[in-house]
User: Fold these one by one.
Assistant:
Number 1:
Amino acid sequence: MKIGLQVPSFTWPGGDAAIGSTLARIAETADSVGFDSLWVMDHFYQIRGVGKAEEPMLEGWTALGFMAAHSKKATLGLMVGGVHYRQAALWAKAATTLDVLSGGRAYLGIGAAWNEEESHGLGFPMPPLGVRFEMLEETLQIVHAMWQGEHGTQEAFDGVHYQAGRLLNSPQAISKPHPKIIIGGGGEQKTLRLVAKYADACNIFGGPEQLTHKFSVLRQRCAEVGRPFEEIERSNLAHVDLSRQSAAEVVDAFGRLAEVGVQHVIFNVSDVHDVRNLETLGRDVLPQVHDIQSVAI
C-alpha cells in the first residue's frame, strides 16, 4: 500500500515569513521517512472545514515546485486542481514542467472544482457545474494529445470550450507514458466515467462502505469504455492526529481501507509543522502500511 502526505494548511508558528522554511522541512522529512507522495490543495482561499478564508494559502503548482526541490523520491501533485482556474493546455504544460524538474515525479490532479467563494472573490469565471464537466473532459483530451510522442501533436483541437492550433509540448514529460492523471471525486454519472476513460488514478472520499460501492461503480464505468479496471490506481483521502490516535490504530484504519481495495492512502497530519509527528509515522506506521496488500476487487 502506498502512502501520501497532503498539506492543506500553512497556518504555522512563525507566521508568513516562516512558511517557506517550515514547508521545506516538512517535505524533506516526509520524503526521507518514506512517504510515497506529497500533495497540496489547489485553492487560493483557505477552505471551510480547515480554517478561515483569510488564513494563508499558497498557489499549488508553485508550492509543488518548491517541494520538489526539497525532496528526492516522493511523487508530487495537486489534490486536486480546479479545471476552471487555468486554460486547458496550461494544465499539461505545468504538470510537464514539474515532471521534468523533479526527474519524473509529477501527478496531474484535476477535477470539476467547487469553491465559489474564492472564484468570485478573485474574479475567476466559474461556469455552472455541467459546463465545468465539459471543460474537464476537453482539458483531459488536450492533455493526452500534448503528451503524445516526442513533442505532442500537430493536430488542431476544436472543442466547444477550447480551441488550439498546435498542441506542441517541449520538453516532453519524463514519466512514461505520461505523468499519472488523478481525478478527484466520486460522482457516479460523470466523474467516474471520466476516470475510466482518461485517468490513471482516482481519489474518492469516504469510509470502507462508501468506497466499496464507488469502486463497484468505477468497475462498471471501466467495462463500458473497454478499460481494465485494474489500470486505475485507487486512492482515498484521510486524516491522522497522533494526539488522539495510536500508531496501531492508524495502521488498523488503513488496513480496513486496503480491504476494500484502496491502494494509496493520502492523509493530512495534525501539527505537521512539528516534524517529529512525521518521524513517528515513518518509524511506527509507514513500514507496516507499506506491507499491507490491497485487496484485488
Number 2:
Amino acid sequence: MNLDVIVIGAGAAGMMCAAQAGARGRRVLLIDHATTIGERIRISGGGRCNFTNRTVSAANYLSQNPHFCRSALARFTPQHFIAMIEARRIAYHEREHGQLFCDDSAEQIIAMLRDACDGAGVRWALNCAVQNVERHDSGAPHRYTITTDQGRFQCQSLVIATGGLAIPKLGATPFGYRLAEQFGIPVIPPKPALVPLALPPELLTALKPLSGATLDAKAQVDAAQFRENVLITHRGLSGPAILQISSYWQMQDYHSGKKQPVDIDLLPGIDISAWLAEHRQSKLILPNLLAEHLPRRFAHEWCALQGNPRLLERPISELSNRDLADVAAGLKSWSLMPSGTLGFAKAEVTLGGVSTDALSSKTMEATATPGLYFIGEVVDVTGWLGGYNFQWAWSSGWVAGQCV
C-alpha cells in the first residue's frame, strides 16, 4: 500500500497527528501493536482524563533543551484543545492548579480523536507488529518502507508516536528509541518520571510508624519546589509533591551525575523559629504543639526520630535554645535521600527520549533524516503532573500533522 503518511502509535499524539494530516488531504495509515487505542488516555485522571491545564508554558516541562517545546505549545495551545472539547460538547471541570478533567469519561476523548481520524479518511492497522523500517535514497518514489505482520507499506512521511517506557502493562516498548538510533538520532537515556521515590531499608524501618501519613508539605530538589500532599508509604515517598519533584531528582543524573537528597518543608508558609519562640514558655511537650499543624501521630513519631528524648519528655519551656533551633531546622528541611524510584511500572511518564537537538521545533522532523518525525512522549520533553503531558501530545501531534 502506498501512502503519504504513516503514523506508528495510536495514542494521544499519534491520533492528533493522523487526524490533522488526513484533514489536509494526505493519505494516512495509523499503525499500533495494540488491539485497542488510547489506553493511556483511558486510565488518566482516574478514568476522567486530565486532558490539559489552563496555563501551560515551557516552564512546566523538563528537557535537555528547555526551549524546544515553546514553538509547538504556542501554535496549538490548551485553548485550542478546549475548543475541540467544547465543539464536541464534552462536559468538563477544573480542579486545583488549573487541571481540566472530563465530567463523564476519558472514553469521550478517545471517541473524539477516533472520529476525527475516521472523518479525515485515516486508515487503521491495529494489532499490527512493525518488523522493519527501511529508508530509501532520494531517488526512490517513496522514502520509507515499513514491513509488518499485516503487509508492507510505503510512505513519504513517517511519524513515530510510540511513547516512552512508563506503564509497561499497557504495552510500552522502546521501539521509538531503537528506531531513532537506527537512523543515527541520539537518545537521552530514558528514566521513570512523575514516580514515587524509594527509600533505603534502614530509613524505611525508622519511618515504618509513619507509613500512611499524608502531609501538606513542600518538596524541594535544587531550585525546584512543589507544595502539595506528601504521602509516606511502606516503600518510600509518594503523593503529588513527590511525583512532581521526582522528575527533577532524576534530572540530576543528566547534569551532575550525583544525586542530592529531597528536602521536605513540613510547615510551609510558617516562620517556624518565630512560631516556636511564641510558645517558648509553653508547658506542652513538642509533639503536642506540632499537632496544631501536623497529624498527631506524625508529630509524635517525627519527634521520636530526631534521637533527642528530651523532645518527648520535657515541656517546651524546659528545652534548650539549641534543641529548638535543631527542631526548627529539621521541620524546615527534613532531608531524605531516596535509594531510587519505584520504576517504570509506577511512573506516569518517561524522562529523556529522542534528543531535541536532532529535531526541528517547528515541524518535529528529524533535521538530518527528511520525512522522519517524532512526537509526544518519545521525545525528550517531559511535563509536570496536571495535564501538561497530554498538552505536549496534542501540540506536538498537531504541529507534525501540518507538515507531514
Number 3:
Amino acid sequence: MAQLGMHTWNELCSQPQAWSDALSVLHQRFAELRQHRALTHVSHIIWSGCGSPYYLAVTMSRLQQQRSDTPVTVLPASELWNNPAASIPRTGTPTLVLLSRSGSTTEVLKAAAQFRSSSPNGCIITVSCYADRPLAQLGDINIVLPSGQEQSIAQTRAFSVLHVGALAVLWALTGSDLHDLDGIPAVGAAVIAKYQQHCVAIGANPAYDQFFFLGSGYRYGLACEASLKMKEMSLTVSEPFHHMEFRHGPQSMVTPKTLVVGVGSQLTNAQEEAVLKDMRTLGGHTLSIGPNESSDMQWDATLPEECNGLIALPLLQSIAYSRATSRGLDPDNPHNLNAVVVL
C-alpha cells in the first residue's frame, strides 16, 4: 500500500536543497533586481498573493516595515482586482510584488492586469515556480524558482522557496548582501534532522483536538500559514494569533486537549514565553520553536533574524502532515481543494 502523502513528505523533507537551488538562481538575478527601477525609484510597495502566498505577503510586509522606510501595503490579489480604488495607489511609482506557486491563479493574473491599468507608472515583480505559466511573463522583473515546484496540492516546499525569493527582493530593496542568506540551507537541514521526528510524534498524538499557532511581528504570517496547513491537510480545528493577543479572548478555548505552538523571536522572547506559560497554567500544552535557548526546538541564532521563521516552517509543516496521516487522510489530496484556483 502506498504511503499516504508521499509527495508531500518528499517535498517537505527536500526543502533545504530546494532553498540552495533557489539561492543559486537568485544570485544570478540579484544585480538586475537591485538596480531595477522597480526598487530604486519605488514610492510604495504592495505585497500580494492568494492562499499560502498571501500569508507570505503578510510576512514580507512586516519584514519590509522592519528594514525599510519605503511605505508598504499587503492585500490578497482578489482585493487588487475587485477593489482597485481602495487598493492601488493612483500616484507615484508603486511596485506590486506578486507571489504565486503556480503562476496561473486567476485572481493573481487579474490583479496584475488591474495594477497595470490603475497605475501606469508602476512596476510589477513576480516570484513564482514555473517559467511556462502566464504570471512569469507579466512582470517588469520575473523571478522563477523551479525548485519550488510540487506534485502535492497543499504547499510546503513551494511556500518556503517563494519565501527565499521574497527575502531576496527585500534584500535588494534595502541594499543588503544576498550572501547573508547562504547559511539558510545548512541550518534548515540540521533543524530537520534534529527535530522532525519529534514533530511527527506530536502531530500523531491523539490527545490533541485543537491547535493554535502564535507568531509576533512577521511571524504572524507564518503562524497563519501553519494553521492553514493544519486545516488543509488534517481537517483539524486550528487558528493563528499574535502571541499576546491570544490572552484577549481566545485563551478561553484552551483545554487539556489543546496544543499552542509559538514561533519564537529573539526580540520579544520573554513576552512570548510568558504567554505560553500562562496557557500551561490553564491546562493546555505548548511547543515553542525558535532561535532561543528557552525554546523547545531551538538553533543557534547565526542567521539574520528575519530568516528564523523560514527555518521553523518544515517543523510546523511536519506536525500538520503527521496529524493528517495519523487520521488516515492524504495530504497530497486535501478535501475539497485543487492545486490552482481558476475562475
Number 4:
Amino acid sequence: MPSIEISARTIAEATRLALEQMGVDEDEVLIEVLQNGDDENEALVRVSTTDPVATDTAPDEPDEAPRRTRAPFDPQAAGAEGRRILEGILDRMDVEAYVSVQHSTSTGPEGETQHSIMLYVEGLDEETVGIMIGRRGETLRSLQFLLNTLVNRHVGRWPQIVIDVGNYRQRRQESLEGLARRVAEQVRATGRPQALDPMQAYDRRIVHMALREDPTVYTESTGEGETRKITVYPKK
C-alpha cells in the first residue's frame, strides 16, 4: 500500500487512523495534509511510503476539473517557519532558549530526495531539558507533532521537522547506531536473526538507516503500537 487518504475530525486523528491502517509509524512515511478540519469539513490527510507526485486534483474537485500544480516544497522556508513557531511556544512556556536550524538531504529507497529539518533547542539548564524531553521522550515527541501540524498550515505540506533538546537526539542516535552495529555483528557470527527490544518510531528509523547499506544483514519491523520492534536477519 504505497499511499492512503483518510478523513477525520482532526489532522491528528486522521493521521493516526492512516498509520494504523498501513501498519507503519509517523517517521517511516511522508504525510500530506490535504485539508484542514473546521466546523463544516473534516480534515483530510494522505500518508505515503514514497514522495507524492508534483500534481494532483484538489480533494473536493470533480475528476474533470483542471489539474493544479502544487508549489514545490521549500525546506528552507519550512525550517524558518518552524524556528519562528517553536521560539513562540518556548516564550509562552517562559523558557529562555535559542533555536538553530540544520538542513540535510538524503536519497530514499525509491531514489527520491528526502529532506531533513532539525531544530536544536539550546541554552537550557538540565532540569528544563529533562522536563521538555519527558519520560522516554514522550513530551518531546508531542511537541514535535504539534510543531509539524502548525508549520503545515503555513507551507502546505507536512514538513517532517525533528526537534532536538540538549543534544538528546544526537546522543540517542549515536547509542542506537552502536547497538545496531553490535547486533549485526552477532547476527553475522551466529547466522540467526535477533530481535531488539520495542522502540519508538524515531528510534527504529535510526536502526534501519544504520544497517541499510550493510550487505550481510537486513532489518524488519513487526508488532503494533508500543510493542513494535526491529528484528535483524542475516542475508543469505
